[in-house]
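One example copied in:
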Amino acid sequence: MWGDTEPSWDRDRNCADQRSPRNPMSQANPKLIIEDALSLQAAEDRRQGERYLSIMRVGKLVKQDAQELCVIRNISSGGLMAHVTAHHAIGDRIEIELKSDVRLSGEVVWVKDGNIGVRFDGEVEVSDILTHRPGADGRKSRAPRLEVHGKAVLKCDDLQCNAEIRDISQGGMKVDVAQALIAGRDIVIKVKGLETMKGVVRWCREGQAGLAFLRPIPFDALTRWLEDRSAAL
């Protein structure tokens, strides 16, 4: 009778083998396991690179000989989305300047509702782009300025004079001026199409002066002024 049935411990072992099949990884090719792990890591790295940081930063967009102000809405190591006012098409080559010492080159990959998507030519370090660190020469990076030619009237103390605008941003401008201005002095700036602005003379040398506005020009106001100037050319 005993020989007609298998011992209890053998029955338990066989049942356990049926209930719990061997781990397929135990029979897998070690090389394939490593390759799969590397593939998973590469996919994770791509997902990390595709994570966007939402921002609202004014930038300068350059396409061939044209330039405009834009608003960067989000950015990642591989690209960005920007709100623009000019016409752009998929495939356009552009450069984006978020601060005076950094330009990012890339290609427009989509256009929708006044926004564009830009893919960078190479990966970038987002923290370096968004942080205003002094350059190698000790100069602080500043907001991007657009090269533009226009006329301004300056009033500094008892002196009033005409000036030629060379570039402008929301926070300041560079002008050609015949009279010497004293750095640190308050100044009033009048430009046709913009509200009268108060500012400070930052520097003056070799017939040019840098002026900082006490209050930034609103983005919409500066954009309209630039568009009106472009239309008049």
Q: What stands out?
A: The radius of gyration is 31 Å. The chain is about 20% helix and 40% strand. Residues 29-144 form a domain with the Thrombin, subunit H fold (CATH 2.40.10.220).
